[in-house]
């Protein structure tokens, strides 16, 4: 997409987390199933009858840093507290709102690798139930087969590679931040 065209579109800046937790010697990832009406940006959701699973994410509030927004969104959408380990990637894409104004939107989502700290997955506030149907732990090795969006599957692959190379506590100091289009 050319930058001039993107400049004329509505812009949204979001942030999300790839939260990992080791349980029984197996890495698990926190995923959410959005409410059906919240699948406004879905280009090609999973097969009918299957749950649409994705990473927790949401808009960055005015004055808020993306990393803080990612931690907040993870808590709001999953009920768990996590800490950021490192930034993984920025995903850029466009979509057309299927609600309200039908506006074309240029969106950037910053994803962070996170480590689970506390909380019970799925213990989310009632007001978040309009956005999130449920939150679940999924074995990391099975996540890509169950996730709806190809851009997010790439993020999970990057998280898996980071953990195998650096572990879940090390930050990649000075590592280049890759960018790709979803």
Describe the structure.
It is a single chain. Helix content is 24%, strand content 39%. With 182 residues, the chain is an alpha/beta fold. It has a single domain (3-177), classed as Nucleoside Triphosphate Pyrophosphohydrolase, CATH 3.90.79.10. The chain is globular. The protein starts with a helix and ends with a strand.
From the structure above, extract its key features.
182 residues, alpha/beta, Nucleoside Triphosphate Pyrophosphohydrolase, 7-stranded mixed beta sheet, 4 helices, 7 strands, disordered C terminus
Element layout with pairings:
Elements: H1 3-8, E1 10-23, E2 26-34, E3 57-59, H2 66-78, E4 80-96, E5 104-119, E6 132-139, H3 140-146, H4 150-166, E7 178-181
Parallel strand pairs: 1-5, 4-7
Antiparallel strand pairs: 1-2, 1-3, 2-6, 4-5
Provide a short characterization of the protein structure.
The chain is α/β, with parallel strands linked by helices and 182 residues long. 24% of the residues lie in helices and 39% in strands. It is globular, with a radius of gyration of 16 Å.
Question: What separation lies between the terminal Cα atoms?
Answer: 12 Å
Give the assembly state of these chains. single chain
Series of secondary-structure elements, N-terminal to C-terminal: HEEEHEEEHHE
Number of domains: 1
Number of E strands? 7
Helix content: 10-25%
CATH architecture: Alpha-Beta Complex
Strand-residue fraction? 35-45%
What best-fitting shape do the alpha-carbon axes yield? globular
The CATH topology assignment is Nucleoside Triphosphate Pyrophosphohydrolase
CATH homologous superfamily?
A: Nucleoside Triphosphate Pyrophosphohydrolase
Q: Give the low-confidence spans.
A: 37-47, 172-180
Largest sheet: 7 strands, mixed
| Mean pLDDT level | 85
């Amino acid at each position: 997409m050319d930058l001039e065209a993107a400049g004329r579109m509505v812009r949204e800046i979001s942030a999300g987390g790839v939260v990992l937790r080791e349980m029984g010697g197996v890495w698990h990832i926190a995923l959410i199933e959005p409410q059906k009406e919240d699948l406004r940006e879905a280009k090609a959701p999973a097969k009918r009858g299957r749950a649409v699973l994705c990473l927790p994410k949401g808009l960055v509030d005015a004055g808020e840093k993306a990393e803080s927004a990612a931690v907040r969104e993870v808590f709001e959408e999953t009920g768990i507290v996590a800490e950021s380990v490192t930034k993984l990637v920025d995903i850029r894409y466009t979509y057309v709102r299927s609600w309200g104004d039908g506006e074309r939107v240029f969106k950037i989502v910053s994803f962070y690798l996170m480590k689970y700290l506390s909380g019970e997955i799925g213990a989310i506030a009632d007001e978040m139930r309009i956005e999130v149907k449920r939150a679940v732990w999924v074995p990391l090795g099975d996540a890509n087969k169950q996730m709806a969006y190809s851009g997010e599957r790439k993020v999970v692959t990057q998280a898996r590679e980071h953990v195998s190379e650096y572990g879940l506590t090390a930050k990649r100091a000075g590592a280049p931040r890759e960018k790709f289009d979803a």
